[in-house]
Amino acid sequence: MNARVTRGFAKKYGQVFLCNRDIALFEASLLGNKHSSVLEIGSGEGFLTEVLLDRGFTVEAVEPDHVLADVLRKKFASQIEAGKLSIIQESILDMQFRSCDSIIGNIPYMITAAIIFKIFDFNFKEAILMVQREFAAKACAKPGSREAARITYSLQIRAYVEYMRTVPKVFFDPVPAVDSAIIRIIPRKLENGINLQKADELLRLIFSARRKKLGTILKGIQPEYSTLRAEDLSMEMFLDICRSYSKNE
After folding, report:
1. Is 85 helix (H, G, I), strand (E, B) or coil?
2. CATH value at residue 60
3. Cα separations (Å) of 100 from 80, 126, 127, 146?
4. Residue 5, pLDDT above cutoff 70
5. What is the mean pLDDT of the chain?
6. Residue 96 neighbours by CB distance under 10 Å
7. Which pTM does this prediction carry?
């Protein structure tokens, strides 16, 4: 394996490679039925892939880099032959609809949000993802708290999100500047009367001026919410605003 190719890929996409087996085992342990199908995002050299296969999962390994994809094909030739592993040499962002039991991956920092929202185009029961700790904290924050951000609402409208554990940066190669965290995402049924496109548009407006009162940002907002700011909004309040704007269209 040419290490410089791996490092170049990491730099381009903000990718780092997990090198602690205990963490990989922990990730795999969070998945359900050991004989279920798993879509792995960014398989790299197969560190997590190997753990998943050892635990009995049937794996679709998504790896866009042709050098790393070839490494996977050689390393797991017998598992591919047995039908336990398939290699998809493509970016997850370019993939068409997929159906699987679970999604797992240590995903590139620079395209974390894009990947997370992309997987909602797929049919899956749960996702276990490694992301930057700061992103995880915002994704899992309580709506209406000081820690809440735009991603808090846009993600929690779509799914239940749980912070599973922090992963120190020394468990990666190359060592990144920040720690990571593992989160669990379980898709949820969309609330009645909620238009996701409208909700995302409202969030963009609200959090582009989060220190301003909502009455100065959103024309026609309900009077009871007009003096609130972004950080004051519970999820119930935001959903109520979404329903109101969806009705008026």
Report:
1. strand
2. 3.40.50.150
3. 18, 9, 10, 36
4. no
5. 92
6. 7
7. 0.91
